[in-house]
Amino acid sequence: MKAPFLQTLALVLVVAEPLLAQRARVNVSGGEVARAAGEDASRLATRIPGIDAELRARLQVGGDSAQRLAMNDFAWKGRVSSVEIDQEDARVFWDVKIVPDSGQQTIVRYRVDATNGAILGVKQFTGVRGLIIRKP
User: Fold this and answer.
1) I need a surface site. Which of 57, 77, 104, 118 has the fewest CB within 10 A?
2) Distance between CA atoms of 28 and 46, rounded to whole angstroms?
3) Looking at residue 98, what is its pLDDT?
């Protein structure tokens, strides 16, 4: 009776192992971020702005991590058009702008906290305003 159960368990583990390997872990300052299976690095922005030393000392989340967090939340159904660092009062955040696959006249802006990686807000710009915000 134990033999069929053990054989079934071994078969399940052999089949499930490649699926579990797809969820690689990436170490990020302050925690871990699970990589999505559909992650495609070509959808990320290639240019991330330079940051002065004073501001860099306050950051815990880099521009690359911020755009990956935004794309994970957006389910990788678009591409990052720009990544910018900004500061309002004492809060430092990344603005990650995504052009969705579904519509070229739309921009989705994610604000990602640069100290802890939390998503502060998501705003969608459509129509003419989306075209104005979008950088060619």
Assistant:
1) 57
2) 19
3) 94
What are the strands, taking DSSP E only, across the chain? 25-28, 31-34, 78-88, 91-100, 106-113, 119-126
Q: What is the pTM of this model?
A: 0.65
Identify whether the C-beta of residue 71 lies closer than 8 Å to the C-beta of residue 98.
yes
Q: Indicate whether 22 pLDDT > 60.
A: no
Share of the chain above pLDDT 70, in %: 65
Of the candidates 74, 71, 73, 65, the one whose C-alpha atom is nearest the C-alpha of residue 93 is 65
Q: Is 20 a residue whose pLDDT tops 60? A: no
Pairwise CA distance, residues 3 & 16, whole Å: 20
Edge-to-edge, what's the strand order for the sheet holding 78-88? 78-88, 91-100, 106-113, 119-126
Give the model's pLDDT for residue 136: 46
Q: Are the C-beta atoms of 65 and 85 separated by less than 8 Å?
A: no
Contact 113, 120 (CB under 8 A): yes
